[in-house]
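Fold sample X.
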Amino acid sequence: MVVVDDAEQGLGVAEALEGGGLPVAEVTFRTSGARDAIEAITADHPGMLVGAGTVVNPRQVDEAVAAGASFLVSPGLSESVVRAAREAGVPILPGVATASDIMAALELGVTTVKLFPAGVVGGPGAIKALSAPFGQVTFVPTGGVTAANLPDYLALSSVLAVGGSWMVDKELVVAGDFAEITRRTAQAVAIATGAGPRG
């Protein structure tokens, strides 16, 4: 999960992520430069899977898709956002925090959801509990995910992937410390593949 202010920062982060072995980025729509960053990354890094995060309305769906986003992520569940994403032909990962949210997602035909904020709503324990009544649902936890708890999430069969921002801390991005972003990314990839230590 990447927060950048402009295309230049986006390109720096993209190169750092690829250098660390993670050619995937969710560029959040929290800043005015997000669209430019997505356009720049998709143009300069064609092998990278680039999505737009924090998409909260249909207008942002259109903007993100026009910029080249391959997938969309939303912090919550919005029927209008899900429908707009479907109309655009782009996968969407809506956020859920409760069993009621999951039921609403299922009514929309969504079976893969973002658990957010995962650390606040119970972490791996919450996913285990929610997986019991919703065995058909897969989760992508974000919010409070760290190098230390990453393996706990990935050990769950109902977890499809994990989203995190500790590798691309905003202070590192602003400082242009892309070498540290690469190092943290490589560490995260090593942990995820079982080749590295936690923390």
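Fold sample Y, listed below.
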Amino acid sequence: MRSLRSHLGLKLGVFSLALAGLCVALPRTSFSNPREPKEKPKLETRSNHPPSNDRLSRQVGHQLRMLAYYSVFDNIGYRVHGDRVELFGQVVQPQLKSAAEAAVKHLEGVASVTNNIEVLPPSPNDDRIRLGCYRAVFMDGTMTKYAIEPVPSIHIIVKNGRITLVGVVDSESDKNLVYLRASGVPGAFSVTNELEVEKGT
């Protein structure tokens, strides 16, 4: 009888140890509360809240103004059509055309970019006219306020000896003065004044 009890006690002890070992071996998550809330995955605003055209337009404009080689001799414009962006204008360096497209392409809400920017033909004569026009316009005492801007609001586009003035000025008198100064640049065949007066001034 004592032998039977000892034998049963030994079996129970082995079973208890085996059960204890099973509990230790099981992963801790098996004993977690099934009602415990789990961390929700973070949702990107890209798909839930597409930017409005106005906000996207401001973002495109900011990216273009921040381009490293964008100068007074370049003019880049854009239009936003829903999730499509169209780029146009003129640049002196070919890499600026590709840089402008790359800068806009990654923006949230942009599905495609149509790059219609014209690369101006290389010309030593046009380069001389650019430099002469810059000096004539921005070295004038009343025009230096435009020259101190990171990217001046007045842009001088020269192609085949012809000057086109584009951008924004503070007043009608500034617009006329810029045209007058540019018209006196040696070697220029013509000057087209497309400057606009800033609204509210």
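Sample Y note: Residues 114 and 136 are 35 Å apart (CA to CA).
Also: The radius of gyration is 35 Å.
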